[in-house]
């Protein structure tokens, strides 16, 4: 019910924001028209009169739309409150989750999760500011359900806990279900994931993260660092070793959490041994860079037809914009204009001492050196970015090890047997 009401609220938010956007665009067009006649008398005076009339009509019209939208919202929410009061449903929406198994794809809960995670990916910071019911926040997951960081919950979830934890961090606009992608096709069992295999092969207890990927990567990194502190206290047995495994954006969040965990002296960070980044854009994602340039170009076009899509594109989340250059700490974006063109503010964030950092990357070409593979990488992340091989020596990321998988795309590497084989060897080192 909470999620359904979140989608209803979003519809009203979209109406309001669209109204505001159209009004701003209309006013800008009118203003440009006046400026064209400004130097000419008496056309100037006539234009001003016409502009005043248009502005009045515009204000009344758009304000009427907002008023109707607001009244309708209140009526719908009141009816929903009454309906919800008559239903025996838990407060926590986390009871309606998708099991981490490949056969869940296509179910109603899967579609709801997919829609919600997509909204969080591209407009998650907006949802957080609005205190939307659709904001995923950040939670630990077990068997597709919320795992509170309490001793009781952990004891119930892990009857046979080990002293080794592996935390899986998903990518942009995804949920923890990503880790079961194509499991049945790859392993003949929809329940097999990297987590279950690492449990069987190396004794890791897998825990999955779900989070709002639209927030700044550094914000999610700090949240994860705090959440792991709570998890360490709640875990039933002493933890000897922790590994973080992230796909795409998840790898950047893992690096950020490791940085802040050690910087803030969290106990779990002293037990961190491995950070594995699968297809992560450490030097930035070319698609976000292209959208950034396109938005800049559209903003310079003096036409309503260009301004509307420019504003829509510019509304993408802080998390997406962080992917432009792979920002993982606050100092890279705080106090800076996120829309300034070609403004690369990356810092040399050192890797945590005593921790093994690994990259696992892919190219769509069978030969990683093929021009197509060099140009497109895995279709979303180029090989130099995934491996941290920056042209400037000061910005290179010196990974402890890594592997490249030819003939795979960005999604394939999230749960492919060959990738798992390399991951297992790296974590076993």
Characterization of the model:
With 429 residues, the chain is an alpha/beta fold. The chain has two domains: 2-89; 97-284 and 345-428, Alpha/Beta hydrolase fold, catalytic domain (Rossmann fold, 3-Layer(aba) Sandwich). The protein is built from 14 helices and eight strands. It has helices spanning 2-37, 43-85, 108-129, 151-157, 183-187, 194-202, 217-234, 249-263, 286-299, 304-314, 318-322, 371-376, 383-387, 417-428; strands at residues 138-142, 145-146, 164-169, 205-211, 241-247, 272-278, 356-363, 401-406. Strands 2-1-4-3-5-6-7-8 form an eight-stranded mixed sheet, sandwiched between helices. α8 (249-263) links the parallel β5 and β6. α1 (2-37) packs antiparallel against α2 (43-85), α6 (194-202) crosses α14 and α7 (217-234) crosses α8. The longest helix is centred in the first third of the chain and has 43 residues, at 43-85. The radius of gyration is 25 Å and the shape is globular. Residues 91-95 have low confidence and may be disordered.
Q: What would CATH call the class of the largest domain? A: Alpha Beta
Uncertain regions spanning at least 5 consecutive residues: 91-95
Q: In total, how many beta strands?
A: 8
- Cross-sheet strand order for the largest sheet: 2-1-4-3-5-6-7-8
Please work out how many helical segments DSSP would assign. Answer: 14
CATH topology of the largest domain: Rossmann fold
Q: Identify the CATH homologous superfamily of the largest domain.
A: Alpha/Beta hydrolase fold, catalytic domain
Task: Give me the strand/helix succession.
Answer: HHHEEHEHHEHEHEHHHEHHEH
